[in-house]
């Protein structure tokens, strides 16, 4: 595992680097850095050669090393913070797309950006243990069961 990873600690957050410099301090090929640029590594495009901010480079590598940096059930990937963030106040909306899945929306705890993710309706019960889920368009599970008021039945469903 170790060894092949670029040495992120060599990057100084407040410095900026050319492609060559970044490759050199990280001990990777220049081609790798160019690939990262294509894959979305931010850089100062007005400058030639490109300059990459150390902080951007670090954030990019952090993210890349944990490609599926698992958001917990109640967490979302915030595009502004560039990392998984919990829903502010643990408040999450579920909007069904199909009977089996839908979209969760919440607000980033740190930057107030609206975050979304796809979610399977089968995991809603689990999510509800960690967050307050609301259903602006109705709870899909209630339709399926045909008896929205029968809480007993509901409990049994959850405990299975
Ligand atoms: Zn955020």
Question: What do these coordinates show?
Answer:
- The chain is an alpha+beta fold and 160 residues long.
- It has 2 domains: 8-65, Arc Repressor Mutant, subunit A (Orthogonal Bundle), CATH 1.10.10; 87-159, no CATH class.
- Helices cover 32% and strands 22% of the residues.
- The chain contains 6 helices and 8 strands, in the order βααβαβββββαβαα.
- The chain has helices at 19-26, 30-38, 54-65, 124-130, 140-145, 151-159, and strands at 16-17, 52-53, 75-78, 83-86, 91-96, 101-107, 114-120, 132-134.
- The strands form 3 sheets. Strands 7-6-5-8 form a 4-stranded mixed beta sheet. Strands 1-2 form a two-stranded antiparallel ribbon. It has a two-stranded antiparallel ribbon with strand order 3-4.
- A hairpin with a 4-residue loop joins strand 5 and strand 6.
- Helix 1 (19-26) crosses helix 2 (30-38).
- Residues 146-150 have low confidence and may be disordered.
- Zinc ion (ZN) binds at residues 78, 80-81, 85, 108, 110-111, 113.
- Zinc ion binds at residues 78, 80-81, 85, 108, 110-111, 113.
